[in-house]
């Protein structure tokens, strides 16, 4: 596992009692970079699937779905132990059920349909016969990741900004390590950014005495340089972030094999031996993690109540609107962010909302 061109800053004037100030030097460039992470057409339902996995389903729920199309959820099963053996048993059971249902002459008379998520298209059940996958919900895991991330995000964003990279890349460790700086994978990836030794060595010291992958901020610099190289080579963030998981050489070969720089084309048409489930879903998982990190109040209200929630100022936001939306006072927003008596907000400004 492991810029943008300078453009003139246009001015935004928003009429209202509380005004969003004209963007300062560099702010428009940052906004343009952040727009590069829009969800590609055709990936919307897949992103929503991962939003659900990360925030809707808990660790004691097994989500049975189509491996090729994970958004096709066939069933959600309560688990007793959560062990790998139980996941395997659920998978085997649903493979047999699908076969029984597929063999019946009339779908509507099947006594097994109630065991699948309703409503579900019977054709999707049949299509998944050889592609059944079972995924545990991750709500508790992602909640912990959100809490841990607050220790690192401010400085990580500073490092990314210094390198001319979009600040939203700071959310990638939610997918890689759940913001666990001590994370270590079976494959040998280490740290917040889960850098492999070969990926890290061009940028960091990795030997028997010192492993700088364990330093969250040195690792951020290395990950940022890798992502910048991938973006410069591939020309888009969907492909660059996919390359972070798949490797830059492999992603270049995939683009050449398919003859397209559209990530959806790669997901649907590339059949490389290592281009598996994790790679196909990596960018969708990143978009899902980004959405949840920026909408914590909606999906994890218990976290927001305990330690506040971050809000990124968008066009049209005013202190009055934010206070009403989050159920706090304007004074509370000012105190939490050390704002002056001025009512001006900046596009892209990050505010801590706390009651």
Give the SSE layout.
Blueprint lengths: L19 E2 L5 H8 L9 H12 L5 E6 L6 E6 L5 H20 L18 H6 L4 E5 L2 H11 L3 H10 L9 H5 L20 H4 L15 H19 L2 H10 L1 H11 L4 H7 L7 H18 L1 H4 L1 H7 L1 E4 L6 H8 L3 H8 L7 E2 L3 E4 L2
Parallel strand pairs: 1-6
Antiparallel strand pairs: 2-3, 2-4, 5-7
Helix pairs in contact: 2-13, 6-9, 9-10, 10-11, 10-13
3D structure, described in words:
By secondary structure, the protein is mainly alpha-helical. Among the domains are: 60-136, no CATH class; 141-294, Lysozyme. The chain contains 17 helices and seven strands. The protein has a three-stranded antiparallel sheet with strand order 3-2-4. The longest helix is centred in the N-terminal third of the chain and has 20 residues, at 84-103. The two termini are 40 Å apart. The relative contact order is 0.14.
For this entry, give a set of tags.
355 residues; mainly alpha; three-stranded antiparallel beta sheet; two-stranded parallel sheet; 17 helices; 7 strands; 8% strand; disordered N terminus
- The largest sheet has its strands arranged as 3-2-4
Sum up the overall morphology in one term.
globular
CATH architecture of one domain: Orthogonal Bundle
Q: Quaternary arrangement of the chains shown?
A: single chain
Terminal CA distance reads 40 Å
Number of strands: 7
CATH topology of one domain: Lysozyme
- Describe the largest sheet: 3 strands, antiparallel
Indicate the percent of residues in helices.
Answer: 40-55%
List low-pLDDT spans. 3-33
Could you spell the SSE succession in H and E letters? EHHEEHHEHHHHHHHHHHHEHHEE
Please tally the helical runs, counting DSSP H or I stretches of 4 or more residues.
Answer: 17
Task: Give the CATH level 1 class of one domain.
Answer: Mainly Alpha
Instruction: Output the structural class.
Output: mainly alpha
Strand residue content: 5-15%
Estimated radius of gyration: 22 Å
> Overall pLDDT, averaged?
85
